[in-house]
Amino acid sequence: MKKKRILAVIMAVMMMISLLPSLAFAQTPSGELGGKLKIKGLAAVGITLSADYSKVTPEGLTDDSVSFSWARQTDEKTLTELSTDRTYTVTQDDLGYRLVLTVTALENSGVTGTLSAKTPEAAQTEEEAQVLALEEEAKGADEEAQEEQPEEEDAQIEEEQPEEVNAQIEEEQLEEVIQEEQPGEANEEAQEEQPEEINEEAQEEQSEEVNEEVQENQNTEEDSDVMQIYTESELQLDESGTESASASPEISLKAEPDTLSFQALTAGYDKIEESQTVTITYSGEGTVTLEQPQADHFDIAGTDGTSEYILNSGEQAVFTVQPKPGLDEGTYNDTINFSVKDSPDSMVQITAQVEVAAEKEEEVYRLTPNPAELDFGALEEGYAEAPKAQTVTLTNEGNTTLTLGQPQADSFEVGPISASELNPGETCTFTVCPKMGLTEGTYIDTIVIPNEQQISVMIDTQFTVKQKSIILTGIQAPDSIAGVKNGVEKSEKALGLPSSVIIKTTGGNMKAKVKWDVKDSAYDPSAKEEQKFTVKGTVVLPDGVSNPDDISLITSVEITVNAGRTPKIADPQNNKITGINSEGYTTQSKITFTAVGAGMENESPGAGDVRYVPYKWKVINTNTWDEAPYTATFGITKAGTYTLTVVFNRQEFDGKKWNETGEQDTKQAVFSIAQGNNITATPTPEPDNANAKKAVQTGDTTNIAPFVIILIIAVVCIAGVIIYRRKRK
After folding, report:
1. Residue 592: which of 635, 628, 528, 627 has the closest Cα?
2. Least confident of 232-236, 310-314, 441-445
3. Which residue from 77, 523, 608, 632 lies 20 to 30 Å from 559 (Cα-Cα)?
4. What is the pLDDT of residues 32-52, one digit of tens each?
5. What is the C-alpha to C-alpha distance for residues 84 and 98, in angstroms, rounded to an integer?
6. Short-list 644, 521, 529, CA closest to 577
7. Helix, coil or strand: residue 493
8. Measured distance CA(233)–CA(579) in Å, rounded
9. Sign of the four-CA dihedral 506, 510, 515, 520
10. 105 close to 31: Cβ distance less than 8 angstroms
11. What whole-number distance in Å separates Cα of residue 729 and Cα of residue 278?
12. Contact (CB, 8 A) for 447 and 431
């Protein structure tokens, strides 16, 4: 019986132990989101980013407690939504932009609020992204260091000036005044033992006490009605050990460097790239004030921007020196004095020198021909004598000597050039005439003047050789044209008119161009019925053909146009934008619209049909469509009134394909954005598993395996006892 009880107690204890995890699992994160959200991963193309909750409160927050919005920051205020997944992979389109992650607490998750994190600008490679991340971390560290620096400096000052040192200094200085009858050596020793750095407040108190002691122990030989009072810094001990007023403190100034040499400038310069600095170091007693130095040909300015430079012993002042703008040609060597205010003899000098060279004249290359065009008229083929030669004069209108070569031409004889070198203002000549024996045709040559300076100098030359006289004897009219397609435009090419006709001459039949007068014809491109009409034209005789018998040059052709279809011309008034809600949206809304182009329903177009195709749209940024469907979705995170603009391109069908006409139509829709409850880049629900049921996340990471094992052992033990008891019965 006792064994059964013991066994029952053991099983009860094990059951209680197995129930312990339920107490831990019941705890879930709760409260408002706080702390700092981070983004895990480098912002480089191809890298997948995720949320890092290591510094987010409350602790235990997981991905299942929040919704996600990944966006691209295109400027300071505009975010373009990219994804609502838990992770995001950086793409090529993200290069140069920051990526923004916004997490928003889900309802019934136990937490509320919104947190955001931002990456550095996205880079092409992980190495570049690592550099950008390190620079941003360093920048953040510098800002934190600047905030903490004042406290550290105060602490350092307190450490460097302990109260014990001040007390010791005070005691030693009081003893020095009281023991005024002691030998000078003792006073000198006491002075040497005084530390150089003394707390300012202690100095003031000690000076007052010393002055009182000096007044009480003043030499009795002085007039008792007139007492000279010195400060502690003015009291010194002479060789006999008595106190006396000190002389003016020694002033020592040092300049580094003492000579400034600048790169040579060219007269007429308007910008000075070079500047140099000089450092003035003061060593001596007390404090001095440097005066602002001046120079005739150099500008001097302190690097801290002040006009007075107060220096204690060991301190420095840095000055920037550069030549003044607009200096003329010459060598400038200035002595610059850095002197102490109220003590002009206390100074240090430096020299600054610069050379300004004469402004170099820009080289100008200009060779001008006169005349620049040669026309030798026209001669009949077989001419016995060439036209008279013409002379070309070349003038050097630049400022540099030119070296010229012999001009050349294909169909013209060019005489030798009179000079191969031309100084500025000088001239030279050569002659040109057509070659003998040229056949019928027009000869146009460009005579090039070769030169070492590669100046482009060309002379246009022309000569025409005409065919021997041919007499017109008649004109062969063209055949009639039948079956022209209805609806073509009113032109020679569209109606199929021939570009030439046959003329009869004494030299045989030959072709001659025709100028057709289509505009005065009876053709109506908009008519639907069959048309017949005549088009007249004027024959243009070729060169060399004459018409002494005054034969009529008017010819004509009969044209028959078939009846045809009427083109479908879409009306731009039917272009529209659908899907925009007149009641407005919030900053959390996703706005979807569709652009409908007039004539887009024409699936069997014919020649001349017109339609309007949606091309691009804009609210803040401009976006384009390459193909249907002409639908877009966007979101805006700032409240206000906005205008959606859609541009439609006009297209015309040529019988084979649609072609752009260059004309456009624009439609607009105005909508408003109100402030939503939680502002995110463009909040949207989860695209997948949006309605799936999820277990409540507790945030507890305790390993439950040991407790499950204990529970299984307890169940096995209970089952064993039951089986054992049944067997005994």
Report:
1. 635
2. 232-236
3. 608
4. 888 889 998 999 999 999 999
5. 17
6. 644
7. helix
8. 89
9. positive
10. no
11. 111
12. no
Cα(391)–Cα(370) distance, integer angstroms: 9
Question: Can you tell me the distance from the alpha carbon of 541 to that of 75, in angstroms, rounded to the nearest whole number?
Answer: 69
The contacts found for 179-186 with CB under 8 angstroms, 24 or more apart, are 180/217, 180/241, 180/242, 180/243, 181/241, 182/241, 183/241, 184/237, 184/238, 184/239, 184/240, 184/241
Contacts of 613-616 spanning 24+ positions with Cβ under 8 A: 613/648, 613/649, 613/651, 613/658, 614/646, 614/647, 614/648, 615/647, 615/648, 615/649, 615/664, 616/646, 616/647
> 674 near 585, Cβ under 8 Å?
yes
Q: Between β-strands 658-674 and 585-586, what pairing exists: parallel, antiparallel or unpaired?
A: parallel
Cα-based distances in Å from 525 to 135, 255, 394, 529, 533: 71, 94, 59, 10, 12
Cβ–Cβ < 8 Å for 315, 228: no
Side chain identity, residue 465: V
Task: Tell me how far CA of residue 69 lies from CA of 181, 648, 685, 692, in angstroms.
Answer: 87, 33, 9, 19
**What is the number of other CB atoms lying within 10 angstroms of the CB of residue 169?**
19
CA torsion through residues 176, 180, 185, 188, sign? positive
**Token digits of residue 211:** 């002055």
Q: Which residues, other chains included, contact 334 with Cβ-Cβ below 8 Å and sequence gap of 6+? A: 295, 296, 297, 298, 351, 352, 353
Tokens of 261: 């040499």
Task: Indicate the burial class of 198 (C-beta count within 10 angstroms; 0-12, 13-18, 19 or more).
Answer: middle
Q: Sheet with 576-578: list strands edge to edge.
A: 576-578, 591-596, 631-634
CA distance 474 to 504: 5
Which stretch, 165-169, 652-656, 706-710, has highest mean pLDDT?
652-656
Of 724, 726, 719, 712, nearest to 17 (Cα)? Answer: 712
Q: Return the percentage of the chain with pLDDT > 90, whole number.
A: 36
Two tokens at 136? Answer: 């941003």
Convert the pLDDT of each residue in 52-85 to its tens digit: 988 889 888 888 889 999 999 887 778 899 999 9
| Distance from C-alpha of 395 to C-alpha of 403, rounded to nearest angstrom | 12
Give residues with Cβ within 8 angstroms of 706, minimum separation 6. none
Query: β-pairing, 309-312 with 287-290?
Result: antiparallel
User: Residues 666, 650: contact at Cβ < 8 Å?
Assistant: no
Q: Tokens at residue 267, please?
A: 């007269």
Structure-token match 């190495």, residue found: 127
CA angle centred on 10, ends 4 and 15, rounded to 5°:
125
> Which helix or strand (DSSP H or E) is residue 432 part of?
strand 427-434
Long-range contacts of 489-494 (CB under 8 A, 24+ apart): 489/525, 490/518, 490/519, 490/521, 490/523, 490/525, 491/518, 492/516, 492/518
Q: Among candidates 625, 667, 673, which has minimal Cα distance to 644?
A: 667
pLDDT tens by residue, 494-508: 888 999 999 999 888
Q: What is d(CA 469, CA 466) in angstroms, rounded to the nearest whole number? A: 9
Percent of the chain surpassing pLDDT 70: 77
Fill in the amino acid letter for 201. E
CA distance 561 to 480: 12
CB atoms within 10 A of CB 338: 23
3-state secondary structure of 162: coil
